Amino acid sequence: MIDIKLLRQDATAVRAQLARRRDPALDAQLERLGDLERRRREVLTRAETLKAERNAASEEVARRKKAKEPADELLERLKRSAEEGKALDQEVREVEAALDAVLFTVPNLPLPSVPEGDASGNTVVKEVGARPAFPFAPKAHWDLGAALGLFDLPRGAKITGSGFPLFTGPGARLVRALKNFLLDLHTLEHGYTEIVPPLLVNRASMTATGQLPKFEEELYFTAADDLFLIPTAEVPVTNIHRDEILEAGELPKGLCAFTPCFRREAGAAGKDTRGLIRVHQFDKVELVRFCRPEESPAQHEAMTRHAETALERLGIPYRRLALAAGDLGFASACTYDLEVWAAGVGTWLEASSASTFTDFQARRAGIRFRREPGAKPEFVHTLNASGVAFPRTIIALLENNQQADGSVVLPPALVPYFGSERLVPRA
């Protein structure tokens, strides 16, 4: 959550920063925060005044008793004052709880470097790799996958429903090869520690990273246990250090995890329903970093480069986009999207999103660090990136590397993990 002190010190500046997100609903939320903050100050002021009056009355009672003067009226006033004081204390607690509840619905503040505008303001930072040119009409991945025996989408839909792909034979081996290649790259070359986290998390974990309360309808939920299937490994991996104080020597710290991810995509009905472009269950290697506040810009760039390196090793043309303020995710202060070129469908597809959350998640999760032993704890900065998501990476591998005979040549980096140099059509 954003720092309430920022609102108290300069509410106008906070409003201006949040206005860059172009979300009209924020106006009402900020008005509510302003009303609650004014009421909190009023109650605290009354409580302080009452405390001073009680102290003065207590001193007067003591003086009268010493002088053997009557003090019944003052004692009665002190009793009423004590009762009012308890009521004021309770009101402060209620107002502060209401403040926290509204704060949990307010998104992060965009960094000054973030471009202005909505999604149309997203800026291409760079484009890497040449888009392939074919002497034939390239096929889409859903046709290639069927011919190569990589996945069976109709049977996946039969088992569960639309958006739950079934990988088979060489397709399943391709998923395993990608997993091992990416984990080796990020652990052995980029220095991440591999994690195998739980796939179900509690409400506290979802709240800490910003999925709750805003995105509950997007999540798969097990009502009997009050647990959620993870939409990304960012959730359990970030929560490893929830309510902990790290030592400065641990930072920066990088963790990575391969997991399936589950997303209802409730707001995307009817969009990109063919093939693997938009699915409800998908695999991903996730990168998470914790660092000191002053390190987060460099850490964001490093993490983005780690994801880019994966795409470069796989020989996939990609571009980096700096997302505009109006297109940022709820918890993000700055995001780079990595989009891969998919020749068969003729478009760019997001395969990675690398974000810095500043101290937004850390405040919700209570993740702090000490710069030195005995120093006052400070909030860390958290960052995450897809390193990378599998479905659209597989789409790009298939569509960009297809051959006239229907086979697909695999990039050299993947061959040792897959066991052969190409995918061939079924006989």
Description:
The chain has about 425 residues and is α+β, with helices and mostly antiparallel strands. The chain has helices at about 5-20, 25-65, 70-105, 140-150, 155-160, 170-190, 205-210, 235-240, 295-315, 360-365, 390-400, 415-420, and strands spanning about 125-130, 195, 200, 220, 225-230, 245, 255-260, 280-290, 320, 335-340, 345-355, 370, 380, 380-390, 410, 420-425. The chain has an 8-stranded mixed sheet. β12 (about 370) and β13 (about 380) form a beta hairpin. α1 (about 5-20) packs antiparallel against α2. The mean pLDDT is about 95.
Short summary:
The chain has 427 residues and is an alpha+beta fold. 41% of the residues lie in helices and 19% in strands. The chain has 12 helices and 16 strands.
Helix content: 40-55%
| Tally of helical runs | 12
The 3D shape can be described as elongated
Number of strands: 16
Strand content: 15-25%
Secondary-structure blueprint:
Layout: H1 4-19, H2 25-66, H3 72-103, E1 123-128, H4 141-148, H5 153-159, H6 170-189, E2 193-195, E3 200-201, H7 203-209, E4 221-222, E5 227-229, H8 234-238, E6 245-247, E7 253-262, E8 281-291, H9 296-313, E9 318-322, E10 334-342, E11 347-356, H10 360-365, E12 368-370, E13 378-379, E14 381-389, H11 390-400, E15 408-409, H12 415-418, E16 422-423
Parallel strand pairs: 2-7, 6-12
Antiparallel strand pairs: 1-9, 3-5, 4-5, 7-8, 8-14, 9-10, 10-11, 11-14, 12-13, 15-16
